[in-house]
Amino acid sequence: MSSTLFSSLSWRRFGSGILPWLLPLLILAGWEYSARSGLLSTRVLPEPWAVAKAAWHLVQTGELWSNLKVSAGRAFAGLAIGGGLGLLLGLLTGLFVPAQVALDSTLQMLRNIPPLAMIPLVILWFGIDEGAKLFLVALGVFFPLYLNTFHGIRTVDRNLIEMARSYGLSGWRLYRDVILPGALPSILVGLRFSLGLMWVLLIVAETISSSSGIGYMTMNAREFLQTDVVLVGILLYALLGKIADVAAKGLERVCLRWHPSYQ
Amino acid sequence: MSSAARTQLLRDSTLAGREQPQSPVGSATGTKGSNGLAISVRGLEKHYGERQVLRGLSLDIARGSFVAIVGRSGCGKSTLLRIVAGLEQADGGKLDVGSAGCACGERPGIRLMFQDARLLPWKNVIDNVRLGLPRSALPAARAALRDVGLEDRARDWPAALSGGQRQRVALARALVHRPQLLLLDEPLGALDALTRIEMHALIERLWREHGFTALLVTHDVQEAVALADRVVVIEDGTIGLDQAVGLTRPRGRGSQEFAALEDRVLTRVLQQGSGNLADPPTAAEQVDALRLAAVRWVI
Known about the structure:
The complex is a heterodimer of chains A (about 260) and B (about 300).
Chain A: H1 2-7, H2 9-36, H3 48-61, H4 63-95, H5 97-111, H6 119-126, H7 130-154, H8 158-166, H9 171-208, H10 214-223, H11 227-255
Chain B: H1 3-19, E1 39-48, E2 51-61, E3 66-70, H2 77-85, E4 92-97, E5 110-113, H3 125-129, H4 138-147, H5 163-176, E6 181-185, H6 193-210, E7 213-218, H7 221-227, E8 230-235, E9 238-244, H8 256-273, H9 280-298
Parallel strand pairs in B: 3-7, 3-8, 5-6, 6-7
Antiparallel strand pairs in B: 1-2, 1-4, 8-9
Helix pairs in contact in B: 1-8, 4-5, 7-8, 8-9
């Protein structure tokens, strides 16, 4: 009796829809309960309800929006500079052997320096201005895009290139119709790596020192022991990371719709 | 079937093959009023490092004829095709295609079909067919696709097609260019037997309609005899046998003349196999495969 009940289709659909959310909801409820009953000090972790209220307050005062704008602006400016350069150099070294010989080994050496290790030097060079944050983000996103673009171009099916040449394609047309689409899956993987690194580096850069942005907001709140605002900041970073990832996935679905794994 | 019986049958069909009237080289059904290119190869040499692949190979192919080249793996048949296509350079000798006499670079009148279809996976079927052509070629691409019976798949991605369908798209892609010489590099090697027979009929029909010269490289002797005016066996980098096929088209595979011709070519390919220098495992495998095919046709 019970086994037929559990195996019925509607129950299974209900189960697979609800079940993944059960554990987070339980944790949230437990958190709320322990914060209210005093088991958890608000200094350590404020109750979820308080976090929601703080977020709403920040939205109303406009603080949240302005800081979000500043942070997102920094992140995408860094991505545009660093990612653009990575893409450009990857195309250059992937397509032209002299460029590869001249540049690739140098870039491979630089790749091994963790961008965060550059912080002291970056502060000496740029102070604690916008320049320092942009430089850190750009440096971090450069390498994933560079490496994956280079790799993508180098692993385009030689047989397809041979076929295209025998059909009279060369120069720009060969590049547009065969090499670039063939390298695109790899380039998009690089973009997703870059997006992940972009937020990490931005958080670090904003936490060190800034006078605006989400990092500033959370560090400021820490001074005043406003743990609820700190938590809002943390959740905002998570949300931004998720949005960037979803956007990258959407881009893949559009650009690689020919690929069997996206059909 | 015992091996003695098989030998007997093989001998019988070989005798039948000898009775077959042999027309002189290159005159089979060739020189009809076609727009094909003639090929003249003189003393072609090619080596990869120490290994000599082609040793002074000479071959004349009449305009509009269908010539099949058979041989064991590594005999140099694909190399010959790639040199004719301009994908590789010969180390010596003379190659003359059509009246142009150019032995370099890309040749507009020549199209090559590869063993794998080599469709661009990011272009849909119709865009693959009109690869390298301006937008105005769209009607021609559609017509070519209709020719191979895939007009209704024009908007599909290549990944959604079967192996045989992909090769048909590749064939359409070659035909759009109105080739004067179509080179086929084992284009049906990866297809199943039924699809192959369908493809044979398709290729034969299109060859008759378009009148191009066709040069087919294959390791399937039956396929060669079914399609070609002439079957050329390449062994050790030079021509071992040049067999005209005078059967009327369309060719029934069950006929005795067909079996006899197939056997004659097969015997030649196999003879060359005993005591040959090629790498042993693949050579042995191929002997087995060919023997099975022989048995199938003498029963």
